[in-house]
Write a structure and sequence with these properties.
two-stranded antiparallel sheet; mainly alpha; single chain; six-stranded parallel beta sheet
Length: 601
């Protein structure tokens, strides 16, 4: 659900509450559809201006529906969320010199401080398309542009609460990690007579749960049905693109993103996603080209990290350091963001040290240690303190001071990993691996994969996936990891969850391209699910590549069967030999229906 006041309503796909001719308010009409008990909702106001905080509070109290808490910044809200949950958060975009509201919402969601059911209301006086686009990308329930009227605030919140009551059972299931139950409940709600003003809200929720459940085609169908009514609904456009991306339809995804480059609200995000596609295809210079279209000052932390990785892949080490240093300089007055970029630069120096002989590491490690000390100074945040200590432990391990590294790891807070981000888990795994704790390293990498899979920032996902792959290869774990991925893909394939199966077969083949059965498994899954292309590969490309590499008679036989299956519908499956910017011959390929669990060595 999303209501936006004073912005193009068609572009955002919203409908404001209105008063009906019956004389009854819109809210009271909708409430007649549901039996509810009046309750008090916990509401948080996050606004750095004390007068504005007080004004919002004074206007909401007469509604008699809220227990209201007020905060001046993100850290105060995070501290409160450790003790209680809020049903609704009103968040200002600009929060003084710290991170902005969008950055805080993203961070709090990723670290699971905000429940799935929590409503988000954004307020801002900034009308720049880049700002509005960032806010829309968080999928808020209400967006208010200052100056707004109290009537519009009240009306929007009444609409949100009506929607919340209408889907309360669905939201309760999401909060209890019952995704299957939530999907069943929202499907039931969708078959009922939905009040017209709630239709878009329910469709959006239904599509979101389908997407999270891996039912990508059904989610995409809902987004397309919304776009049939109005092709300018931005949340539906992004939803469809995310479906195309996850389904591996990268050619269609690229076309849709290119179409958004002329949309001021979505331009920067479109360039960022195009860079992700190019990065995944190992087209490093093309990824850099797309990211160059975003002003350096506007690059988010994940986008900056992705750009520094594109430099590193091209051995442009100085350019990577300069970029991260510029981002630090831009944000010297914003402590939270400054610390984030300082940690990123420290990690960049660590990656340089990893590639150097032991005798040449001292300078890079010294630079990293200095930056970690700056970023970790006077930290009261548990996650940041933990990140600092894992990075210092890794520095010590690379210096050969294993006792010091172990001292850092033995601290009580180092094993509290529920809210630890994927990049910190990777550093932790590297440290344990150097110290010989191989099983612990594997466990941490598995946790990092799981965390990364649910990160809704595509740049963060892409860069973490690259670092994970590099790390696993460096640890000599690629074949073991590839077998695990293939086994997971097999289970998904048997359950006819083809989109997820393709993802795991693809990753397995990326990890160990010499195991040709992984390529055959992907190819068969593509044919069964009628995907002529998946990510960087087409059916035609895989058939050609695997015909040169099949290493056993059983694999040759499987390949012949799959070729015949493709040729029966050659106009569909074999029309395109390669993607426009597909990988070179050094890139991986993937495989087929496992007669049993085929690993085919």
């Amino acid at each position: 659900m999303m209501i936006c006041i004073t912005i193009d309503r068609i572009a955002l796909g919203v409908q404001s509450p209105v008063r009906l001719n019956t004389g009854r308010s819109y809210t009271s009409m909708l409430n007649s559809f549901i039996t509810v008990n009046i309750m008090s909702y916990r509401l948080a106001i996050v606004e750095d201006n004390a007068t504005a905080r007080s004004s919002i509070r004074s206007h909401l109290l007469p509604m008699g529906l809220f227990t209201i808490s007020s905060f001046s910044n993100g850290p105060e809200l995070k501290s409160a969320l450790k003790r209680q949950n809020f049903e609704l958060i009103i968040m200002d975009f600009h929060l003084g010199e710290g991170k902005n509201g969008v950055e805080w919402i993203h961070q709090l969601r990723q670290s699971q401080f905000i429940r799935p059911s929590t409503g988000i209301v954004f307020i801002t006086a900034d009308r720049l398309p880049q700002t509005i686009g960032q806010i829309i990308d968080t999928q808020p329930d209400l967006l208010l542009i200052k100056p707004y009227s109290i009537a519009s605030l009240t009306r929007g919140i009444e609409h949100y609460l009506t929607y919340r009551r209408f889907v309360s059972k669905v939201l309760h299931a999401l909060d209890n990690d019952n995704l299957k139950g939530a999907l069943s409940l929202v499907a039931t709600v969708s078959t009922r007579k939905i009040p017209p003003k709630l239709k878009n809200d329910v469709q959006k929720l239904h599509a979101r749960i389908l997407f999270q459940s891996g039912r990508i085609k059904e989610a995409k169908a809902i987004y397309e049905s919304v776009l049939v009514v109005s092709e300018k609904v931005l949340w539906a456009q992004w939803g469809k693109i995310k479906c195309e991306y996850l389904a591996g339809n990268w050619s269609d995804c690229k076309t849709a993103l290119t179409d958004l480059l002329n949309n001021g609200l979505a331009r920067d995000k479109a360039f960022e996603w195009l860079a992700c596609l190019s990065f995944e295809q190992q087209a490093w210079s093309q990824a850099e080209f797309y990211l160059d279209h975003i002003k350096t000052s506007e690059l988010s932390v994940p986008a900056t990290r992705l750009k520094s990785l594109t430099y590193q892949k091209q051995e442009k080490i100085i350019e990577g350091i300069d970029l991260l240093q510029k981002k630090r300089d831009y944000n010297r007055s914003a402590r939270d963001r400054f610390n984030d970029f300082t940690f990123e630069l420290a990690e960049f120096y660590l990656s340089i040290a990893e590639e150097q002989p032991h005798t040449n590491r001292a300078e890079s490690l010294q630079q990293s240690k200095k930056l970690i000390g700056i970023a970790g100074r006077n930290q009261g945040d548990h996650q940041q303190t933990q990140k600092k200590d894992y990075m210092l432990a890794y520095v010590a391990s690379l210096e050969g001071d294993y006792d010091k590294a172990q001292q850092y790891l033995s601290q009580d807070h180092m094993d509290a990993l529920l809210r630890t981000d994927a990049s910190t888990l990777i550093v932790a795994a590297k440290t344990h691996n150097v110290l010989g704790n191989t099983e612990k390293a594997k466990e941490l990498l598995a946790m990092a994969h799981e965390k990364n899979q649910f990160d809704d920032d595509m740049s963060a996902q892409t860069s973490n996936e690259s670092v994970l792959t590099t790390t696993e290869k460096a640890m000599g774990m690629q074949e073991e990891r590839a077998l695990e991925l293939n086994d997971t893909g097999m289970r998904m394939f048997i359950a006819k969850d083809y989109v997820r199966a393709m993802y795991y077969f693809y990753q397995a083949y990326q990890m160990s391209p010499h195991i040709h059965a992984f390529g055959l498994n992907l190819l068969q899954c593509m044919l069964e699910s009628r995907h002529p292309a998946y990510r960087t590969y087409t059916v035609a490309f895989l058939l050609q590549r695997l015909s040169h590499n099949a290493d056993s008679e059983s694999n040759h036989k499987r390949l012949r069967q799959l070729r015949l299956q493709a040729e029966k519908d050659s106009d569909y499956f074999l029309a395109k030999a390669t993607l426009d910017s597909g990988p070179g011959e050094s890139a991986p390929a993937v495989a087929s229906e496992p007669d049993s669990v085929q690993t085919g060595q």
